[in-house]
Design a protein that fits this description.
Blueprint: H1 2-21, E1 36-47, H2 57-62, E2 73-77, E3 80-84, E4 88-95, E5 101-105, E6 108-112, E7 116-123, E8 128-133, E9 144-150, H3 152-155
Parallel strand pairs: 1-4, 3-9
Antiparallel strand pairs: 1-2, 4-7, 5-6, 8-9
Length: 172
């Protein structure tokens, strides 16, 4: 009988130990709180007609029939913007040049006149990849970029663990 009681006690201790070693439930995530992001984008000349005096090889490139005939190569800097679904993006668009540009996203088109700073607001409503382009035909396809909108679920912070719910490493 004593042996039977010891077996039951040993089994109870084993079960209690196993319960103590169980992993804590997965941390629940809290909802992502959308933020206002302040982003500055500048137009940058890469290969333009004004550079022909500095780089003589550009004379033939910009000449009639040359590889840059009727084109100039500009860029946005930065060319990739990353935000989270629900964020409000406050854009400061700087065009220090003497050429006209534009900044175009789905549901947003902003003229960037020469030598100006323009401000615009964009709300990133849905996760995905969205093209950014300059609508000046001779600046395409080079003057482009992308807006990366991450899902709110992927950016949600993990809730802090409840006191006493975590298992201490190395203990069981």
């Amino acid at each position: 009988m004593l042996r039977h009681i010891r077996s039951i006690a040993s089994a109870s201790v084993l079960l209690a130990g196993a319960a103590a070693c169980r992993q804590a439930p997965a941390a629940r995530t809290r909802a992502y709180a959308p933020r206002t992001r302040l982003i500055t984008v500048t137009t940058v000349p890469l290969l333009v007609k004004e550079q022909q005096a500095l780089f003589p090889f550009l004379k033939s490139a910009f000449a009639k029939g040359g590889v840059l005939d009727g084109k100039e190569v500009y860029a946005f800097s930065p060319s990739t913007i990353t935000v989270v679904e629900g964020d409000t993006v406050q854009l400061t668009l700087i065009n220090p040049e003497d050429d006209e540009h534009s900044f175009v996203l789905p549901d947003l088109a902003v003229a960037m006149h020469p030598g100006t700073i323009t401000r615009a607001t964009y709300v990133a409503r849905t996760a995905g990849l969205y093209p950014i382009v300059c609508a000046v035909q001779s600046h395409l396809p080079m003057m482009s970029g992308q807006l990366v909108v991450l899902s709110a679920a992927s950016a949600a912070p993990a809730a802090p663990a409840r006191p006493g719910s975590a298992v201490t490493p190395g203990r069981s």
